[in-house]
Amino acid sequence: MTKLIVTHIHPDLDAIMSAWLLVRFNQPQYGDAKFEFVPAPTTYKNLPPDNDPNIVHVDVGGGKWDHHKPGGFSTCAAKLVLEDLVAENLVPATDEALKEMIGTAFEIDTFADCYWPGTEHPRMAFMLHEIIPALHRLQTHDNEAVLRMVFVYLDGVYQRLKDWQKGKEAVNEGEEFESLWGKGIVVKTAADDVSKTAQKMGYQIVIIEDTKHGYLKIKTAPAVTLPLISLYDKIAEREDKNRWVYHNSGHMLFSGSDKGEKKEKSSLFASDLLEMIEGGVI
User: Which terminus of the chain has fewer CB atoms gathered within 10 Å of its CB, N or C?
Assistant: First the structure.
């Protein structure tokens, strides 16, 4: 029987993340769930919140997945749902990406985000927990439409955090080198956007060898003033330049990309690029 997930009208991040956890990580039970929205702090048809196994309440109603009761300020609905998913062995307790997401949701739900650095900056308008109430105020999307839009965003957050974790692990296993562009590292990984992770860890130039697609990418940090044109010219001595794209910023040089035209992949490897750099590219 199709489950019904009930939460409050104008659901916030905690409410939506609670529902998302059930739908994404307990697919047999909640994969095709329907949604209802009730005024806080009521329940669906004013029934007891945990009375019917096919009707569950999250972040509303005073049931097992609602923290709006004495002592509830020490947790949040999403955290309560995750704890049950872990207890049922549906989610590993070691899932660092989910733990990060729940930790952030808890900070937001208990208003601790007001202490985050830069909260007064307009860039905060891009933050999901700021966008959700704005969407409700627009009234161009109903409660379920907003919830399902945020589901997609949370899918992306979860994937990004997993990629970030894999990227950090790959950078820690990378091969460091010195170059005209500064301290560099060679990283072999299938994780996405590892160059940004490496730059945040202090590297000025990053060579990525994509172990899944065979792509190669060289990227320098924004503060680096020396362009990569000399390396591009050096590569052209070894193979057709049309296998490569030199970005007009001078900061990127890559062979193969999911963003543009599929070109013939380079016959070179990261080790070849490193040899050129250490050989004294000018």
Answer: N
Residue 169: inside a domain, yes or no? no
Residue where a domain terminates, one of 164, 190, 207: 164
Q: Which structure tokens are listed for 110?
A: 């208990």
Q: At what angle do helices 96-109 and 77-87 cross, to 10 degrees?
A: 150
Instruction: Please give the Cα distance from 11 to 16 (Å, whole number).
Output: 6
Q: Are residues 271 and 143 in the same domain?
A: no
DSSP lists the bridge partners of residue 182 as 179
One domain for residues 274 and 240: yes
Question: How far is 226 from 142, CA to CA, in rounded Å?
Answer: 51
Residue 136's closest CA among 5, 6, 44, 9? 9
Q: In this predicted model, what pLDDT tens digit does every residue of 67-79 receive, in sequence order?
A: 998 876 799 999 9
Alpha-carbon gap, residue 228 to 184, rounded angstroms? 13
**Is the pTM of the predicted complex or chain greater than 0.85?**
yes
- What is the phi/psi pair of residue 180, to 5°? -65, -25
- Range(s) of the domain holding residue 107: 4-164
* Cα 18 from Cα 162, distance rounded (Å): 19
